[in-house]
Design a protein that fits this description.
alpha+beta; binds flavin-adenine dinucleotide
């Protein structure tokens, strides 16, 4: 690991001042992903701006029909926080599926959403793939068993975050502080497809800091579930996951649905097809099955990842069946 400068910021303004306008300077939160990348040599940074000592970024608060979750909130805190448990159970379920207790104690919510791809070609320092500035996605012709079945061109990595699909299904907004001030946008709109930018997964630039999330309180009649399939029962990234957040009226008719898939696309994949299939329908066994079929109707398998289509279909059907009650 190369030596680097470590700058400890105590306010967001101090952190913004210490950040540069290129990726030689990086934001350091829990460090569970960034330091690993630096040790592996896939990231070379000259300076890290450590934001862990900024108290305002660690708070979880209730306000104006929203729950605000500071960027530095630990993933384990989400699991334990009474407000999150009462209002956003789907987020608690997703948090409980992340890695191991030790990593959940170190890893932050923003760090989880902004973690870099786990694609084995991207993570190999000797392989300069498209995402690292090369010309080719090696997974396209290599081992693509963990790769995307949606939106795979020109890079087929998958979004590794368990929290991101749940936050998108809840309609979360993010607050971003940068050189031009602070602004807010839907989390879903921060993501960049490989076609838009094969090197970055989101719109944050090197001088931006994600300061927090604002999550609208789900309306009465809403319920959600997060399910994840992985190869091993101990810590492992999702082969596929689904965050399903559904609102029904007194008649069990769906008035709104958020079906967001993880581990199967470069970004959290909002399944418009499944959502359309559910809209205005009673949540019957047939409708759950039809929505699961619709969720994978546009999936495209590569040579080694065809199993993900059946797996995703089954997860969606199982999640919706749980929501039928
Ligand atoms: C063995 C292992 C197993 C794992 N399994 C899972 C799993 O099953 N599911 C899952 O979802 N994740 C998993 N992870 C990933 C883990 O959850 C992340 O490493 C962790 O959440 C990252 O949070 P952090 O605070 O440590 O981020 P850091 O490592 O500090 O940062 C990660 C990235 O985000 C940037 N960043 C962080 N915070 C901000 C901010 N506020 N503003 C701007 N940029 C920021 C950093 O510059 C860096 O690029 C696993 C990790 C490991 C090592």
């Amino acid at each position: 690991m190369r030596s680097f400068e470590h700058v400890r910021a105590h306010t967001v303004d101090e952190a913004l001042e210490a950040l540069g306008d290129d990726w030689n300077t990086r934001v350091l939160a829990g460090g569970t992903d960034l330091l690993h990348e630096m040790k592996q040599g896939t990231v070379i940074a000259e300076r890290l701006v450590d934001i862990k000592q900024i108290p305002e970024l660690g708070k979880i608060e209730d306000g104006n029909g929203e729950v605000s979750v500071g960027a530095l909130s630990r993933i384990s805190t989400l699991e334990e926080n009474a407000l999150v448990r009462a209002r956003l159970p789907i987020l608690v379920q997703a948090a409980a599926e992340v890695a191991s207790p030790q990593l959940r104690n170190m890893g932050t919510v923003a760090g989880n959403v902004l973690q870099r791809p786990r694609c084995w070609y991207y993570r190999d320092r000797h392989t300069v793939c498209l995402r690292r500035g090369g010309k080719l996605c090696f997974a396209a012709m290599g081992d693509n068993s963990r790769h995307a079945i949606f939106g795979a061109a020109p890079c087929s990595m998958v979004c590794p975050s368990d929290l991101a699909p749940a936050l998108v299904a809840l309609g979360a907004k993010v607050e971003i502080a940068g050189p031009k001030g602070r602004h807010e946008m839907l989390l879903q709109e921060t993501f960049r497809t490989p076609k838009q930018d094969p090197r970055r997964e989101n719109c944050l630039g090197p001088s931006d800091i994600l300061t927090g999330f604002r999550i609208p309180e789900p309306a009465p009649g809403s319920r959600g579930v997060f399910l994840k399939a992985r190869e091993r029962r101990v810590w492992d990234f999702a082969l596929a996951s689904v965050a399903a957040q559904v609102q029904t009226d007194g008649d069990n008719t769906v008035t709104s649905a958020g079906i967001v898939l993880g581990g199967v696309a470069p970004n959290p994949w909002v399944s418009q097809k499944a959502q359309e299939t559910l809209a205005g329908e009673k949540l019957t066994e047939e409708v759950c099955r039809a929505a699961a079929d619709a969720a994978v109707s546009e999936a495209k398998a590569m040579k080694h990842n065809g199993y993900k289509i059946d797996l995703t279909r089954t997860l969606v059907e199982r999640a919706l069946t749980e929501l039928r009650g």
